[in-house]
Amino acid sequence: MESPQKRADLQGIRGIAIISVLAFHFFPKWCPNGYLGVDQFFVLSGFLMCMLLQKSDQHNPISLFTQFYSKRLKRILPLYLFVIFWAMISLYSVFPSTSEKINQNSASKALIFMSNRGKTKEEDYFQMLSIALDIFTHTWSLSVEIQFYLIIPLIYLIGSKFPVKIQYLFYISIACISYAFSAISTPTVSFNSVFARIWQFLTGFLIFMLSKSSDPLCQYKIIAQNDENDEKECQKLLENEDIQNDQKCSVIILSLSFFLTLGLIFVVFMPIPLDARFLRPLTTITTGMLIIFSKNDQKILSNRVLTYFGDVSYALYLVHWPMYAFWKLTEDGDEIALVLTLLASIILSIIIHETYEQWYLQQSISVIGMLTVILYILNIILVNKNEIIDRFEGISYRYGTLDNVTDEMTISDAARLNHIWSVNDYANLNTPYCEYESGGPLGWCRHKGLSGKYKVMSIGNSWAANHATIFHEECGHIAKSILQGSASACEPLYPSRQSEACRANFTDFEEHVRLEKPDYVFMFTRFITIGDPLPPNVTSFDMDPIYQIMKAQMLKMIENVSQKMYILHSMPRPNADFIERIVPMLRRGVPAEVIDNLLVDHTMYHLARRRYSQLENDCGGKCILVDYDPVFWNSTIQNFRFFDDKGFSYFTTVTHLSPRGLEHVRHVWTDVCRKIT
Predict the structure, then answer these.
(1) What pairs with residue 568 in β-bridges?
(2) Pairing of strands 573-574, 600-601
(3) Which residue intervals of the chain bear CATH 3.40.50.1110?
(4) Where are the transmembrane segments (predicted)?
């Protein structure tokens, strides 16, 4: 029996889907509805699943399962694992070190097809700071699809036991339940959950059944003629009428296909964001109708450009996001680089499709199985690279401890630890001394194991969490309680960048101080907006809006503080791009003074210090500035130095104090709290 010809129109629909996804990711302002391309992929996948299941052995459930899974996994796994492998290589070689931790975790989820889950606190934190992106975030749709593969053969086997009409009712009922679940769920669940997507797969599933079980559109049965004398004449008339009807039907079908395609393109590429609750079912139904009516469409959906995009769509979907993420982290805002990244994604996808993808699709199932096992092993090794190296070298790195630096360590150890400290920056914000309300280092927590006499608060941006361990160890003896509050990138005395989150945290800090009524407040923060320039024609802090907000917030707080408020003074910020270059530059013989000039950012630093100094003057004797400048100032070179003689950095690439940096300032807090009696 001759195998059915590959439908070019379906590849054309895939082409529209992948182009819309690319447009949404690369140009979201111009194509805010492009995410619907994934919905189209789900409908097409459902159509393909039904076809594969109906071609499988209907009488042997085990055979049906094995045939279905072997065909789908052969298509999906080799390229999927291949792209993850090269993405991990790229992660370690060209991506910022701050991207490592979240992508190691994300790759682990991708390898077991569990990417369709909400972001962790760590991922949210790094992405908010624009210092890391999940390069495997796009694998969520593959996770949804694979998870659906686990249940669709069972659904099909149950449905196949019913008469055809009941089968339709069975599948439609499941689809309706899934759609209802999607409609009542939160946006995150509705987007990510396989149960909220079943109705889209089943739409494609039903479309295949409909296309196979129904007579072709516009076809009718010829009623037998009883008049033998008129038989030949009647037959000729009927044949002529058939031709005319076929032509009319062809025009109708092509017109429907044209308008459906045009409508789909219009909605997907409309530059105005539309409600997903309306768009998602509309796109799903439209895609299903297109599959029915576009079979003979040779002009639009079957044109070579669209169908070729459909052919490379799988490779392009897997490849484009890691490349976009690299652009976002390194060249964000450069539109020319963005377009070049898009073109590079397309070219690389074509190369992969024409070489590796075409090669493995022609291999036997045993070769595919061996290739899959090898790629899985390599990916597991890459995901756990840091732990494997540490074990191999006999290195023990314990989260929550400080630098572990010894006198015997060399510049090679500095390179390794500088990298580890940046990779594990978020994990090191946790302190074993705190019981967290939110389950993570940011937000509010109470320190435990205290027996002093004062109520203490420690507040600030992420520097409050960054300092939590040494603060507890050096100042815990004075406290009967320590309430710690940390808000990422938000200063307690000013709503940084006037962002919505920082405005909320600005109020939250003051409310917690008012409710806690502490004896002492310690404010740990690096300056953000507090260092911004004075407005035009403003020469005094009396007219400075930033300072006036700082002062008002400070006065509200100290009304509820019985003793003192210690405020960490401003210091220069490090240039994060050069932190991991410290050791390589030292090895090349670059003078330390040159590295200092590259590493230390004096921008806005002096104005931030002036504002804090004025705040101390206006505080009525209740505010004390704690200054790190003398600790990092090198009087010999008359500049700040952010690394030690062996190259150990005092900062991570997230511009927190590294474990080495925290040890470097530990004595400051020892001295401060020793004076509190």
Answers:
(1) 626
(2) antiparallel
(3) 415-674
(4) 12-28, 75-95, 135-156, 168-188, 194-211, 251-272, 278-293, 305-324, 336-353, 365-383
Q: Report CA-CA distances (Å) from 491 to 125, 460, 488, 510, 607.
A: 16, 6, 9, 12, 16
Give the residue from 328, 230, 256 showing the smallest Cα distance to 27.
328
Task: List for the chain the helix, strand, coil content (%; round to 5).
Answer: 65, 10, 30
d(CA 606, CA 557): 25
430 token code pair = 């946790």
CB 675 within 8 A of CB 610: no
Q: Burial level of 478, CB count in 10 A (0-12/13-18/19+)?
A: buried
Spatial distance between the Cα atoms of 434 and 484, rounded to a whole number of angstroms: 8
Give the pairing type, strands 520-524 and 623-626: unpaired
Phi-psi region of 500 (alpha: psi -120 to 50; beta: other; left: phi over 0): alpha
Nearest CA-CA partner of 563 in 445, 470, 469, 452: 452
Q: Which residues pair with 118 in a beta bridge?
A: none
Q: How many CA atoms lie within 13 A of 88 on its CB side?
A: 24
Residue closest to 149 by CA, chosen among 73, 244, 62: 73
Q: How many residues does the chain have?
A: 677
Q: Which residue has the tokens 């190296």?
A: 389
Is the CB of residue 15 less than 8 Å from the CB of residue 305?
A: yes
Which residue shows structure tokens 């203490």? 456
Q: What one-character DSSP code corresponds to residue 456? A: E
Cβ-Cβ contacts under 8 Å for 262 (sequence gap 6 or more): none
Three-state SS for 103-125 is HHHHHHHHHCCCCCCCCCHHHHH
pLDDT interval class at 61 (50, 70, 90): confident
Structure tokens at 573: 């910020």
Tell me the two tokens of residue 76.
């999906």
Per-residue pLDDT reduced to its tens digit, 64-102: 888 889 999 999 999 999 999 999 999 999 998 888 888
pLDDT tens digits for range 155-194: 999 998 999 889 999 999 999 999 999 999 998 899 999 9
For the segment 209-213, the average pLDDT, to the nearest whole number, is 80
Unique residue bearing structure tokens 């000729």: 236
C-alpha–C-alpha distance, residues 508 and 430, integer Å:
21
7 contact partners, CB below 8 Å, separation of at least 6? 295
Distance CA 209, CA 237 (A): 34
Q: Is the pTM of this model over 0.85?
A: no
Q: What 8-state DSSP symbol labels residue 220?
A: -
pLDDT tens per residue, range 525-582:
999 999 999 999 999 999 999 999 999 999 999 999 999 999 999 999 999 989 999 9
Amino acid at 128: M
pLDDT tens, residue by residue, 391-444: 776 555 444 347 788 888 999 999 999 999 999 898 899 999 999 998 778 999
Q: Which of 496, 429, 428, 495 is nearest to 458 (CA)?
A: 429
DSSP label of 577:
G
CATH for 415-674, options being 3.30.2130.10, 3.40.50.1110, 3.40.50.720, 3.30.450.20? 3.40.50.1110
